[in-house]
Write a structure and sequence with these properties.
12 strands; elongated; 247 residues
């Protein structure tokens, strides 16, 4: 059995570990290649895109993939829909591995939005010193006139591409999770942050920022995650995915 994992996440790496060495199972993990120095999973790894739906469909057929696992980031909407179309075209079973989203707790001041532009429009009503943790790909949403007068502490793994529109007043912090609660508390205090912006990525690695914001009484703008393609089965953990593959 050949399993292709569309990965780049902690869950994708964990699933590769669980399947590594299993009798009769060959695992290939595919990474998009957007992050410099990615954490590589065990086993076979390919890096780079497939060339859209047609390219992925052909790859599934040529490499005789028996099961396709979409273990990409919850906000990697394009590849998830490409995976659904390609799996259907190649007649390959598809399983989506998605960590559960975050759930607000007592004391949280969450403002749920559907997009980064909506988050940018909301910010001036909530604060002036923004901790932006939505990654480098969406910085242009915060470069418009609605962000005039705001200051941004932007955290991402890699710097934005040259020429990418960014907020006029921004300090860039290059760092990779997991992050500690004490570290997040100190970051909010030290930079006098009064509003947090994040995506509902879920997971424990970056959740401490939400706890730190709740403790400090800071509002959080949380972008809802996009839906999984209709008809695709979803599991919440690598262990559940591995069991489904074995069955």
């Amino acid at each position: 059995m050949h399993v292709l994992i569309l990965g780049g996440t902690t869950e994708g790496r964990r699933l590769a570990e669980l399947l590594d060495g299993a009798t009769g199972v060959r695992v290939t993990s595919s990474l998009a290649g957007r992050v410099a120095g990615p954490r590589l999973p065990v086993g076979e790894v390919r890096v780079g895109g497939f060339g859209g739906v047609a390219g992925l469909t052909e790859w599934l057929r040529t490499h005789r993939v028996d099961v396709l696992i979409d273990a990409t980031h919850p906000f990697a909407e394009t590849i998830s829909f490409h995976a659904a179309e390609a799996a259907a075209g190649a007649h390959v079973p598809l399983l989506a591995l998605r960590r559960p989203g975050w759930v607000p707790e007592a004391g949280d001041k969450w403002h749920m939005v559907d997009s980064l532009p909506e988050a940018a429009r909301l910010l001036p009503r909530l604060g002036r010193r923004v901790f932006l943790t939505t990654g480098r790909m969406g910085l242009a949403a915060f470069a418009g006139p609605e962000s005039d007068g705001l200051w941004f502490l932007t955290r991402s793994v890699d710097p934005p591409e040259p020429g990418t529109p960014t907020p006029a007043r921004m300090e860039l912090l290059l760092d990779r999770g997991p992050f500690s609660l004490e570290g997040e508390r100190e970051l909010l205090r030290g930079h006098r942050v009064d509003v947090l912006v994040t995506k509902d990525s879920g997971g424990a690695a970056t959740a401490p920022k939400l706890t730190a914001a709740r403790e400090a009484g800071i509002p959080a703008v949380v972008v809802r995650r996009p839906p999984v393609p209709e008809g695709v089965r979803v599991v919440a953990s690598p262990e559940e995915a591995a069991e489904a593959i074995r069955r």
